[in-house]
User: Which sequence fits this backbone?
């Protein structure tokens, strides 16, 4: 079905099963979100109300285990795709919120479960993930930017992260710091929930981005920030991250597949008028749709066992995520070629998706990171 065929004036029904949840998400995406997408993209409007509506519908907790979720990763990915089809920035923030909920639930820390997790799942509380740096560190791309000094009852953390999204007053994010042994990093890390309003936390405005402006993205500077037991996610962090890394990457796929679907929609939108000449283009919508459907089938299968810790499974997830990125870049570019000048207008979602697809390719794991990991894991000694 094309986006243009879907009803625009719809209100979100209450979600009680997967179909209801996706119908509710579609209603939010095509209703209030479609109205705000320009100001999210151009003016940096942070759509807190939309995120809360999506969370209340269960869209950012479907992957979590009961009692807050349905344990259905593919449903969460589909919901993210429905939203990304309309607004990639909001789809990205769904991933931020969704993966932060995953950190909390998988921590097993009672202080991050119960009421705290319920408030997160329902969207009363919002959060993100400062995990690009640690994920790149584990892939041997860069060193850790935060340092944690053990003290009575917890850690004192210092350091700066250049950009973390879905932040604001009262928000939080999952983060990792290298634990210090004296002045030098010991070979272990601590993962914790970093709270934006707490003493020692400074949020810094970022320079303008080419897309993703309304994503509540800030630099974070920590000066003697105290982490107590109530906010510990994992220590040591490495075994925990090894357990959740496939789920972390897999969940992102909804962003790439959704933006791709939006690009295909916009190719069909001009088919009646321009098909006579567009037929000479390479990446046609029917072929892209077939490739996307097959990719979604692979993602659906992988989403059945998101915590499979085998190397083969992780490679399959990295391959799917890399395919999402490549397909998204190709589809967004082809949509622009199909739409021509109308797609090149600043108000057109077609040119916005080109910029959004570039983000899919550079957000961690960026395409170069994915390829490095796949090459490393393909060697027999890799873990
Ligand atoms: C809009 C936006 C939102 C993001 N949201 C998050 C998030 O929520 N959580 C998260 O952990 N990461 C976030 N990131 C970071 C992102 O995931 C990537 O890590 C980042 O885009 C760089 O990836 P790269 O692998 O291409 O590194 P490269 O571009 O190869 O860069 C290498 C290193 O240099 C740093 N760097 C490059 N240019 C600058 C600069 N001008 N100022 C400061 N540092 C710089 C990069 O951060 C990186 O660590 C966000 C980035 C952007 C642009």
Assistant:
């Amino acid at each position: 079905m094309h986006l243009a065929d879907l009803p625009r004036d719809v209100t979100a029904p209450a979600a009680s099963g997967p179909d209801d949840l996706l119908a509710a998400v579609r209603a939010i995406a095509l209703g209030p979100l479609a109205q705000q997408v320009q100001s999210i993209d151009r003016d940096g409007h942070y759509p807190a109300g939309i995120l809360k509506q999506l969370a209340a519908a269960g869209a950012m907790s479907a992957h979590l285990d009961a009692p807050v979720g349905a344990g259905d990763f593919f449903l969460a990915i589909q919901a993210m795709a429905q939203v990304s089809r309309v607004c990639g920035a909001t789809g990205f923030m769904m991933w931020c919120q969704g993966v932060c909920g995953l950190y909390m639930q998988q921590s097993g820390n009672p202080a991050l479960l119960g009421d705290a997790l319920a408030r997160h799942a329902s969207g009363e509380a919002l959060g993100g993930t400062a995990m690009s740096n640690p994920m790149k560190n584990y892939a041997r791309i860069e060193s850790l930017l935060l340092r944690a000094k053990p003290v009575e009852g917890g850690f004192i953390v210092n350091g700066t992260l250049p950009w973390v999204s879905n932040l604001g007053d009262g928000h939080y994010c999952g983060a990792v710091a290298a634990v210090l042994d004296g002045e030098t990093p010991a070979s272990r890390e601590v993962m914790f929930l970093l709270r934006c309003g707490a003493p020692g936390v400074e949020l810094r405005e970022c320079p303008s981005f080419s897309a993703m402006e309304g994503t509540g993205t800030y630099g974070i500077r920590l000066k003697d920030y105290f982490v107590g037991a109530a906010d510990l996610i994992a220590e040591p962090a490495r075994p925990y991250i090894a357990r959740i890394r496939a789920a972390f990457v897999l969940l992102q796929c909804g962003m790439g597949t959704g933006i791709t679907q939006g690009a295909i929609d916009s190719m069909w939108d001009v088919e009646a008028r321009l098909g006579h000449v567009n037929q000479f283009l390479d990446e046609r919508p029917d072929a892209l749709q077939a490739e996307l459907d097959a990719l979604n089938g692979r993602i659906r299968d992988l989403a059945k066992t998101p915590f499979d810790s085998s190397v083969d499974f992780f490679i399959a997830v990295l391959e799917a995520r890399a395919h999402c990125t490549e397909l998204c870049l190709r589809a967004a570019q082809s949509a622009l070629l199909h739409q021509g000048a109308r797609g090149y207008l600043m108000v057109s979602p077609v040119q916005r998706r080109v910029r959004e697809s570039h983000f899919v390719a550079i957000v961690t794991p960026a395409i170069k990171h994915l390829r490095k990991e796949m090459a490393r894991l393909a060697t027999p000694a890799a873990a």
Remarks:
- Strands lie at 127-129, 146-151, 154-164, 172-181, 184-195, 201-205, 218-228, 232-234.
- Residues 96, 128-132, 142, 162-165, 209, 212, 215, 217, 362-364, 366, 369 surround flavin-adenine dinucleotide (CB under 6 Å).
- The chain has three domains: 3-121, 127-237, 239-377.
